[in-house]
Amino acid sequence: MWLALAAILVLAAVLRLVGIRYGLPFALLDPDEASIVPRAWRMVHGGGLDPRWFDYPSGLMYVLAPFQAWEREPSYLAARLVVAAFGVGAVAGSWWLGRVAYGRRAGLVAAAALAVCATHVAYSHIAVTDVPLTAAIAVSLALAVTGRLEWAGLAAGVATGFKYPGVLLAVPLAAVGFRELRRLAVSYGLLVVGFAVTSPFVFVHPREAWADASRVNRLARAGWLGFEHDGSAPVAFTHRLWSGLGPVLLIAAAGLVLALWRRRRADLVLASFTLAYGLSLLPLHAHFSRYVLPLVPALGALAGRLRALVPLTLALLVVPLVWSIRDDRVLTRRDTRVSAHAWIQSHLPPGAAVAADSSTPPLQGLGVLPLALPGPGRPSDPNRDVARLRRQGIRYVVVTGAVEDRVLAAASDYPRETSFLHALERRRPVYRIAPGHGLVGPWLRVYRLYP
């Protein structure tokens, strides 16, 4: 059994390390990297511990900061390696959760499910909050299953310090501690302590923190570019879970039904968290796959609950394993935007005024006008107008399929943005690049508005 666990952990590490350098030195896998890693770097280079930014709590920034101390500039590689370690740790935490909940075989199922989950593997390559959150959730749930409510509360506070939805761990604490109100109160107090230790400046700047967190929540509820045709949240997030776990999701669902019927302590912990977290996703219209990651340790353990199906469950995990290997192979190739950045820096005149989509690398030495990312309910960026850009002296426009393909897929929702792209397409680009011939990523084009 220990040998099997060791093999799962080695597999998890390999899947998370292959392609870890993708897109470097730029944050091309997720724009949140560019918000988190530079702030962690500044903390150990004279900026102090106050992030003055609360879209996310500061727990991950504090963990990343020591590993930035010897770097001359923010190191995405160092940060990604830390998150990859969290990813492997989350696999170990899932093993512990499954084992204490339903036995050794369930532990192996839970660990294997998270180890090969395509979504978890993908986000273990990115220095953002979701994988550390998932690791802390697995630990907190395992502590709650073993009856250590106080420690579970503290772990829940640490989880919340990584990302605010960790506070939903208060639900399984209540599900198993409602008969011991004093211990439950202590566990809730320790949740606050854990959060305060990992994100102390939330309490120093409560209004600013509330404004930032509320804005992020409003954006998630309103939706995001690319999700306009997803349908309802239950359908969209079920699809996201399937994309990570494959057919094992059906076995996990059966395990959840059985847990709701049996209602033992482990059942109460896992079922209450799964339902509470699932309900929290229903108002969202931004259906990012990372949002379902906190569910995977619990679902893996619930899949392992069906002991007679354990061999079948392990066999079915070959499906997400193949998906993860496929995705890793993509990450070993060069991103189109890295090549485009090199061309732009060497061919555009220094100081030239450039309007650029988001999801493009930073352009040093140029006067960059960022083009706002379109989205549901957001006002159109008036700068997405060729005549206006010319009047402002903008000489070049850089657009990428990472933004524009999503705009075109929902053209009726974004008429101004679509017209802007069509106006550019009537011109001949001075540079274009597309995936193929060893390159992956979105297409990118550079247009010149005047000589």
Rg, alpha carbons: 23 Å
Percentage of residues assigned to helices: 55-70%
How far apart the termini lie comes to 69 Å
Structural class: mainly alpha
Estimate the mean pLDDT confidence: 95
Q: Can you list the strand order of the major beta sheet? A: 3-2-4-7-5
Shape, per Cα inertia axes = globular
Overview of this protein structure:
This protein is mainly alpha-helical and 451 residues long. Helix content is 61%, strand content 6%. The chain contains 22 helices and 7 strands. A 5-stranded mixed beta sheet has the order 3-2-4-7-5. Strands 1-6 form a two-stranded parallel sheet. Helix 8 packs parallel to helix 10. The N and C termini lie far apart (69 Å). The mean pLDDT is 95.
Brief characterization of the structure:
With 451 residues, the protein is mainly alpha-helical. It has helices at 2-17, 33-47, 59-64, 76-102, 104-116, 118-123, 130-145, 149-162, 170-177, 181-198, 201-204, 206-222, 233-245, 248-262, 265-281, 296-305, 310-316, 318-331, 336-347, 386-391, 401-409, 415-425; strands spanning 334-335, 353-356, 367-370, 396-400, 431-433, 439-440, 444-448. Helix 1 (2-17) packs parallel to helix 5, helix 5 (104-116) crosses helix 16 and helix 14 crosses helix 16 (296-305).
